[in-house]
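Most newcomers find our protein records easier to grasp once they have seen one. A record pairs a protein's sequence with a compact description of its fold. An example says more than a description, so a record of this kind follows:
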Amino acid sequence: MIRNILFQIKHTFSKISFKRKDKVDVRLNNSFGQLKEDSFDFELIGKYFRNKDNSKAHQVLSDKTCNDLDFEDLYTFLDRTHSKIGQQYLYNKLRTIERNEEQTKLDEIIIDVLSRDSGFRISVQKKIEKLNYKDANHVISLFQDPHVKPPKWFFIMKLLSFTSFISLILSFINPLFFIVLLGVFCVNCVIHFWNKNSLFQYVSSIPQLLNLNKVATSLYSLPLFKGLNTKLPTSIKLIDQVKSRMSLFQLEAKLQGDFQIIFWFLFEIFKTLFLIEPLFLFGVLRRLDTKRDDIEDVFKFVGHIDMLISIASLRAGIDVSCKPTVISGNGIIAHKMRHPLIYDCTPNSITMTDKSVLLTGSNMSGKTSFIRAVGLNVITGLTINTCFAEFMSFPLLRVFSAIRISDDLLNDKSYYFEEVLTIKEMIIEGEKNEKNIFLLDELFKGTNTVERISAGKAVLSALTKNNNIVVVSTHDIELTDFLAEAYELYHFSEIINKNKIDFDYKLKGGRLQNRNAIRILDINDYPKEIVNEAMAISRVLDKVYQLTKDE
C-alpha cells in the first residue's frame, strides 16, 4: 500500500517536471529569431568592457562614435543572449574591432550547428540560462576589481577563532570556561558584523562563479565547443580547488533568498562564534586573486558560446544578411545594404573603391541614415561577422565619426569648437598607417558659409589621403565642384506633389539638381511675400555663383 502511494507521488512529480521541461523547450524554440523582451541596464552590461584592457585590439570604438551611430539601440536589436555573462561579453565584442580568421571559421561552424539542430541548441540554452540572474553581472568583479584586503590585525581573528574552539571544549570540563567563551563571543560579534560590509560585495559574485564554473564544465563536455579553448579544463580545475570554501557563500545567498530565519539564526551564531565568515572570505579572496586569468577564461568561454547563439538567432530573425568578405585591398562594396534599426528599410547599393563619397540632398531624405548604415554594417561585419546586406566587402577598418555634435556648456565649448576638436582627431588618426573610414554629416555647419566651404574642402581633401575612405553629407553645392576629383557624388531627393512630400530614400548618382527647401516653405503656408522674396534672392545668388564658377 505504502509502496503504491510512494510510486504515485514519484510519478506525479515526474509528470510535473516533464511538463515544466516541455514548456521551457517550447519557449526557447519560439524565442529563437525574435527580439528579446527585456530591459537593458547598460551600466552593468558595459562594465566588463569599461574595465577590460583592450589595448591590443585593432580599434576600440569611442563613446563619441557609439553615440553617433546609436550604439545602444543597435545592441538592443542584436542581443539575443540568454545570460548576463553573454550580454557583457557581446557588448565588449561589438565595441572592439579585431579580426581572427581562424576563430571566425570555427565560430561559423558552431553557428551552423546551432542554427540547424534546434534540439542541441535548446539543451545548450538551458544550461546557459542558469546564469541569467542579475547577480551574474557581478562575476567580473572577481577578476577585474581589486579585492578587499584583510586588516593588519587579521592574525587576531585566527587567535580568537582558536580561543573559541578551545573554550567550547574546556567548558564541558570546567563551566568557568563558558564565561571565557561568552566574552570571546562578544568580541567576535563585533568583528563578525564589521566584516559584513566586506562580505556583502561577494554574496552575489562568488555563488555565481560556482554556477559559471559548473555551466562551463557542462558545456566543455560537448565536443563542438572544445576547440574554443583547449586549455579550459585547467582553468576549471583551478577554480574547483576553492569550491568547498566558496560553498559557504552559496549557502549564505540561498538563506537570504529563502528567508529560512530559524536555520539562518543558528548558522549566524555558529559563524560568529568561530569567525567563519572573515576567515573564509579573506582565504577565498587570496586564492581567487591568483586565479584571475582562469576566471576570465571561463567567463569568456561561456560568454562566447552565448554570443554565437545570439548571432544564430539574429540571422534567423532577419530577412537579409550576409557574411562580409574582408579584403586585403581598399574600398567598400555594398549590395542592397540596409540600416539594421530602420523597419522595412529601403536597400541601397554602392561601390567605393577609387574615390570617397559626397552626399547631397534635403533634410529627411536619407543622407544621415545611409552614413550610419555604412558605419554600422562595417562594425557588425568586423565584430560578429554579420552584415545587413546581400553582399558586402571591405578591409579591416577603423571607424570614426562626426555626426551628432553638440555644445559642451560645462567645459565652455561651442558646437563649432567641439566639431573642430573631433575632426582634428580624425586628421591625426588618418595620418597613421591604418585603413580608416570617416563618417561625417554636414561639416562645419556651426560657422559662416565662406569659411565653412573653405575649411570643409581643405579638411575633406586631407582626410582622403593614405587610402582612407570618407562618407560625408553636405548642403553646400559648391563643395561638389571643389571635391569632384577625390569624391564620387551621390544624392537623395524627394518628390513634391501638390502639397505632399514623398521620400523614396534611394541613393542616386551625381549631385542634387533640384532644390525644394523654399517650395516646402510654400507648402507649409508661409506668407507669400516671404516665399517670393526667398525665391528672388535664390535666383540672384545662383547667377553670382555661376559667374564666379565661370571665372
User: Anything to note?
Assistant: The two ends are 111 Å apart (CA to CA).
